[in-house]
Design a protein that fits this description.
With 969 residues, this protein is α/β, with parallel strands linked by helices. A hairpin with a 5-residue loop joins strand 7 (223-233) and strand 8. The two termini are 83 Å apart.
């Protein structure tokens, strides 16, 4: 049904011929003067759900809610539009299906040329989503405002209850913007907020405070004053003199400029007066106490703030974070961390504390009494002050560090006076505590202490003099032997390389062989020194000493000659012992030769084997000897014997009674060191003219005798496996690398364990790790070997050392499964040991499982590689060298550009993230220097469009050796 007039029909025809009928975002339609729908567009159908046939001719009240229709809103809208010329409103409207939407409505009256009303034009738009978004945003803003308001109230309450006086000066004239109640009292309750300090407290002129404020503001450097005299006037005009400790701490804005000065202070008048009454002898101790007190007061004042200023939460947090002492706020009876400043986080090892209770966050503090103190303060609402209290904290995992702290536990009270939490502040006074302890130590009865210690030293000296002397010499000789072995390794290795590469002329080879013989003698000398120092790497097994001595019978008779009779006495039921059999044979042989030299005209050598029990009474007079069952090996002669003077020095290295050129004097010292390192006991019995008996006691072993290991010999063979050499002595490293390459091996090298681990992690297949035992840095060689096996489960590991320092030797034994090649070693020894490890069944299975060896790239290019990570730089350069490339490496763009100016390169590989200049800019400059240069950008961000624009290749990190090979190929 339709009641549209002819003029409306004409208007409808005109409108429908336009785009209005096709608009979908707006509902645009016409109403007759009595409010019936006359036209309908696509937007109206989309918004309200009616088709044109369904709605045209119907009253437009159907679009309104029932409550609006009852209130007459639709007719009021038409009346308003006609009276005011337009009607505009937002409100709920109803679709055909009964659902509601929030609409923005505009109604305009329409007139013909005679001014007669011909109807209304109505535009409606669905703005429900915009309304919902605004409501969500408003709710979020209301919630944020409420949270900030609550936090500000809480922080201001903490400030009000904090001890100490605080104020804040802004700008170069130091205008008061903040003061707490303590400072208000100190200033005589004067109205100072908003005034410059010179106007607020004019009586401070001449006391130095104005000048200090100027200096701190201009320099940006804090100032700490201790015991400074201060005179202020009370309201009645009376001058009050006191002494204060205070800090002027500059506060910086986001641009790094000084915003103002945060001042904290405390009245130390009583301490100053007491300090002046002390004698001069106690002045240093008193100063230490004052410093500690000042530090504690400084920390207390870190969070001070006044209600009158109402600083923003951000500004207050800045003051809190920059406070010099440690501060935290604990909430509730469980003491949950709510706030902690930078000093507190530093003290506790930068842990994640917020939201955790103290017992979970700091478990190592359990049992130290702090948790119980917190419980007491919370329950009683009574503060607790601690001074120089010992605190054990975990600095890094597994490392406990002892601190001494001053602190105050201040209960935080609500409006009803009930505890809601605890305000903790204090300072680390470990250094002050140590200084104070030192002062107290020297203030005690020094003469009595010196006399007591002198008596103790004199009594101990007689008992331990001989043992201490040998220990000291042992440390010295061990260190000398270590360096000596490295030197011999360089000399011997290079001589062997020279011998292998030399033309076969008799005279040069003779000199080389002579030098190699000297190296071998030096190695034996170093081994004897290490034996005395108890640093030789032993490989003990369970043996029967009777069998060892029996096997030596022919050797001993040949060494002693026909003038010496040898007798061996074996006790019944002889026990086994766990020792290094080769070192035991060497000791027995050396002692037998010493006995021979003591019997120049002939005599008798007796070797006695038996079981012995060393009880508590016997070991009480010995050093480092445990009671128990031992195997005794005694070697006796009937020679010249030793005097008392000779006996006291008999076990010292290089001491000998033989003429010059007839011995090194290392036989007895080596035997002594070997027995001690094995956990045994060494004793000499001698009488001049009647001979000498040397008794060696070795701990009994309850295990069965082990089968004797077979030492393989044979021709020297090399291989084509890859070996990683880890050696910090560059001369030794260069020699070993050259020896290995001469044997056909592929060699990579590292100066320390961290660099070696980077190479192992790079993905390069490594068959064997050859590492020195004693290495610089935090990562030790045994740990390097453990991590290497985690990365390459089937890798073989060979240690080398001239001095183990117990890194792989414990209780005198080489650790189980450890393979060691002692320095100095010959090329033949190295070759055989490598083949023994690499040819074993386990190593063969491991190598079969590894990927094929990395093949080099056919074409050799000159490559410049840039990366600021030193380990990655070293590893990648090594990989490129293995790929048959000529490589230069550097860690920064400036050096790279300088190298490009001096040399021609085929390829440049640079990290994208470089300090000072990124890889893209470096690539651009490199291209301008060398237009034909190929560019590769290594990036952890994936493929880079910037690199593509330069014509460069992106090499995503992490990259493997095969990735490098693909890029270069």
């Amino acid at each position: 049904m339709s009641t549209a007039s002819p003029s409306l029909a004409t208007l409808e025809a005109n409108l429908t011929s336009t785009l209005v009928a096709k608009i979908r975002d707006f509902a645009i339609f016409m109403l007759s003067p009595d409010g019936r729908v006359a036209t309908w567009n696509a937007g109206a159908q989309r918004a309200k759900g009616y088709t044109a046939d369904e709605i045209i001719g119907h009253a437009f009240e159907c679009f309104y809610t029932e409550e609006d229709r009852l209130a007459g809103v639709p007719r009021q809208a038409l009346a308003t539009a006609q009276a005011a010329g337009v009607f505009e409103a937002t409100g709920w409207r109803v679709r055909k299906d009964g659902t509601r939407f929030w609409a923005h409505v505009v109604i305009d009256p329409l007139y013909d040329d005679d001014g007669s009303l011909i109807g209304f034009g109505k535009v409606t738009r669905d703005v429900t989503k915009a309304r919902d978004a605004r409501e969500r945003e408003q709710r979020a803003q209301d919630a944020l405002l409420q949270a900030r308001t609550e936090q500000s109230k809480h922080l201001l309450r903490l400030v009000e209850q904090a001890p100490g006086f605080v104020c804040f000066f802004r700008g170069p004239t130091h205008v008061y913007e903040l003061q707490n109640e303590a400072h208000h009292r100190l200033a005589g309750h004067r109205d100072i907020i908003g005034k410059p300090v010179r106007e607020a407290l004019p009586e401070l002129a001449g006391q130095g405070f104005f000048e200090l404020l100027d200096d701190v503001y201009q320099s940006g450097q804090p100032h700490v004053g201790r015991g400074v005299p201060l005179t202020v006037h009370r309201p009645d005009g009376a001058a009050v003199a006191s002494y204060i400790d205070f800090v002027y701490q500059p506060i910086f804005d986001e641009n790094g400029s000084v915003l103002g000065i945060f001042s904290q202070g405390s009245d130390v008048t009583e301490q100053v007066i007491n300090a002046r009454s002390l004698v001069q002898k106690q002045s240093e101790l008193e100063q230490t106490i004052l410093d500690r007190t000042s530090a504690l007061e400084d920390a207390r004042r870190a969070l001070a703030r006044a209600d009158a200023l109402q600083l923003s939460n951000t500004f207050f947090q800045s003051l809190f974070e920059q406070a010099p002492g440690f501060i935290c706020v604990l909430k509730g009876p469980a003491h949950v961390f709510e706030l902690a400043n930078g000093a507190y986080r530093k003290l506790t090892g930068e842990r994640d504390l917020i939201g955790k209770d103290v017992r979970d966050a700091l478990p190592e503090v359990e049992g130290q009494g702090f948790f119980e103190l917190l419980d007491k303060v919370y329950q009683t609402a009574t503060p607790v002050v601690g001074q120089s209290v010992q605190l054990e904290l975990q600095d890094v995992p597994g490392k406990i560090v002892t601190h001494f702290v001053d602190f105050i536990y201040q209960p935080i009270l609500d409006a009803q006076g009930q505890s809601t939490g605890i305000f903790v502040q204090g300072s680390d006074v470990t250094k002050q505590k140590q200084a104070m302890d030192e002062v107290q130590k020297y203030q005690k009865e020094l003469e009595s202490l010196v006399e007591e210690r002198t008596t103790e030293l004199q009594s101990a000296q007689a008992a331990l003099q001989h043992s201490q002397k040998l220990e000291a010499i042992g440390k010295l000789t061990g260190g000398v032997a270590h360096d000596f072995n490295n030197i011999l390794q360089v000399i011997g290795g290079n001589l062997q390389l020279l011998r292998d590469s030399s033309v076969r002329e008799q005279l040069p080879l003779k000199h080389v062989d002579t030098a190699l013989g000297a190296v071998e003698r030096g190695a034996k000398l170093a081994a004897q020194l290490l034996a005395f120092a108890r640093r030789q790497p032993l490989q003990p097994v369970v043996i029967s000493p009777a069998r060892v001595v029996q096997q030596m019978d022919e050797l001993l008779r040949r060494a002693l000659g026909e003038t010496i009779a040898v007798e061996t006495i074996r006790g019944g039921g002889l026990w086994n012992t766990c020792v290094d059999p080769y070192q035991l044979e060497n000791v027995i042989l050396n002692l037998a030769i010493n006995a021979r030299d003591a019997m120049p005209s002939g005599g008798k050598l007796t070797i006695e084997l038996g079981n012995a029990m060393l009880d508590d009474d016997y070991v009480a007079s010995q050093h480092d000897l445990a009671p128990g069952q031992y195997v005794l090996i005694a070697i006796s002669d009937n020679g010249s014997g030793m005097t008392r003077e000779v006996l006291e020095r008999a076990c010292e290295p290089f001491f000998t009674t033989k003429p010059e050129g007839h011995g090194t004097g290392l036989g007895l010292s080596m035997a002594y060191g070997f027995v001690k390192q094995t956990g045994g006991h060494f004793q000499i019995y001698t009488e001049v003219g009647h001979g000498t008996t040397i008794k060696m006691y070795f701990p009994r072993s309850y295990k069965a005798e082990a089968s004797e290991p077979v030492v393989k010999s044979g021709p020297v063979m090399g291989g084509n496996e890859t070996i990683l050499v880890v050696e910090d002595d560059l001369a030794v490293q260069a020699t070993v690398v050259e020896m290995l390459r001469s044997l056909g091996y592929k060699v990579m090298k590292a100066d320390h364990a961290a660099a070696a681990l980077a190479i192992l992690s790079s993905g390069v297949p490594i068959d064997l790790l050859f590492t020195d035992v004693v290495m610089p840095g935090q990562l030790r060689s045994p740990e390097l070997a453990r991590q290497a096996r985690l990365i390459h489960p089937d890798i073989a590991v060979l240690f080398t050392s001239g001095y183990t320092q117990n890194a792989i030797v414990h209780d005198g034994k080489l650790d189980a499964g450890v393979q060691l090649l002692s320095k100095p070693y010959a090329r033949d020894q190295l070759a055989r040991k490598l083949r023994q490890l690499l040819s074993s069944e386990q190593a063969q299975a491991g190598r079969a499982a590894q990927e094929a060896p990395l093949e080099s790239v056919g074409a050799t290019r000159r490559v410049l590689f840039i990366d600021d990570d030193p380990d990655l730089l070293a590893t990648t350069c090594a990989l490129l060298e293995m790929l048959n490339q000529r490589v230069d490496g550097t860690s920064n763009a400036a050096d790279a550009l300088a190298m490009l100016g001096r040399n021609h390169y085929d390829v440049l590989i640079t990290d994208y993230d470089l300090p000072g200049m990124d890889g893209i800019e470096l690539a651009r400059r490199a291209k301008s220097c060398q237009p034909e240069l190929k560019i590769v950008i290594a990036s952890g961000y994936g493929h880079l469009d910037e690199a593509k624009a330069l014509g460069a290749i992106t090499l995503p990190k992490p990259f493997s050796p095969s990735d490098l090979k693909r890029i270069l190929a």
